[in-house]
Amino acid sequence: MIEVAPSAATSTGRTPSGVPSSPWKHLGKDLPAGLVVFLVALPLCLGISLASGAPLLAGIIAGIVGGLVVSWVSNSPLSVSGPAAGLTSIVLASLQSLQSFQAVLAAVVIAGIIQVVLGVVKAGIVGMYFPTSVIRGMLAAIGLTLILKQIPHLVGADADYFEDMTFLQFDGQNTFSAIERAMRGIGAGSALVGLVSLGVLFLWDDVIAKRLRVLRLVPSALVVVLLSIGLNNLLDQAAPVLRIRPEHLVSLPNISSWQDFIGSFTQPDWTALQRPGFFVVAFTIAIVASLESLLSVKAVDKLDPHKRITPTNRELVAQGTGNIISGLLGGLPITAVIVRSSANINAGGQTRMAAFSHGILLLVSLLFLESILNQVPYSALAAVLLIVGYKLTKPALYITQWRLGWQQFLPFIITIVAILFTDLLKGVSIGLAVGIFYILKANYESAYFLSKPAAMQAGPIHLKLSEQVSFLNKASIVKVLDELPDDTQVLIDGSNSSFIDYDVLEAIENFRLAAPERGIQLELRAIPQVQVLGH
Description:
8 strands; mainly alpha
């Protein structure tokens, strides 16, 4: 794989095509976008910690490292890294097998080292083989999942953690049963705040900010958060019956000073390297985190208005570096995450400064903003994610894929359904299997061009091979050779082929050996002969 140098489209430097320049020149857009990402990331980091069975601070540490470290080591201008819902079950299982969180931290560090090695040996090329139809299906599925998962939070009827993205939830519910249960237990205060927040988000950019230019600099998500705090306090005083319950508010750990923060770090237990299964855990975290990161940056590149391309090998090095530091400081494993990255793009982020500033805000929030942020209702943040989800799964996307034909539409829609009813990696794997089927089918049909002489005219049946003939083409070539009529002239022409796989050459040689028995007069043109076993 050829990776573009940092000065080209993969960087944040301005190019003639209008790609944003130095990150310092776009703070007017990046800082508000970073604020939006921070507001979305904060409950996600806390929720993933709870779901993973880890200390509450572990998710925040991972988010801080993802913002402050990975954003600069990576060459992705828009991707945001942090703890991911896809790793919660792995961390839970790792806690059971290694018997302590400190041992899991050691595994996270080793996983990071493995990722760095994968990047150095250029294993990131795997990311180039995800079909566009599958990536678009993944984005649409994440959008639908966000919408479905945030409805219970919007109406204040879900105490489940905030980024539970799998179909089967930890509380025994599934995506649809959770919505059904939520409709029977709506929290009036949360629902009021959520619906008002949703209305503001719909109107802010297209109506309110257009009429008052000065408001265009204010992110709609910030307006919603401040408004939700005000509404929450108003309800508390004016209508206590509508008071939002504590479990439906952001809940930051109590850290009153920098010393408390430093003292709360957990150190890895290096004696765990001797425990059975330790390296299995480390490799599992490394592989799953790498695949999820490669999928995420590929999806972010699709969403990037400037169509910049992230170097995948460098991304593996960046994620590995982040996991090494996160593990050493007591944080959860890190990946590039599509939900926060999508929020960044929708908020107008231009360069890596948006992700970096979200990391700074996570750090500052722990030290100074606990009392304010603990008043933010989840329903307001759910409204923000509902808008993000809608933008990922707009009806126009489905129409576009339908018009491209079944070869693009079927992997797209199957990926969506598979992710909705399983999880991200399983769903993408199913979508990839369908996509590979169509790739094989296309190879089956495009390996050659067959022309036959017109009736009553002399001349051979001409089988002209394509430029690249791989082992994937063997089945179609064997089939056409078997179906050639006996007692004819046949010309197999490889003069335009720059590569013919050995398996195909062996099939042609088998046909050459059998041709006299069928009365076929065979001519081979630019076809190398190979030794066939038994001859």
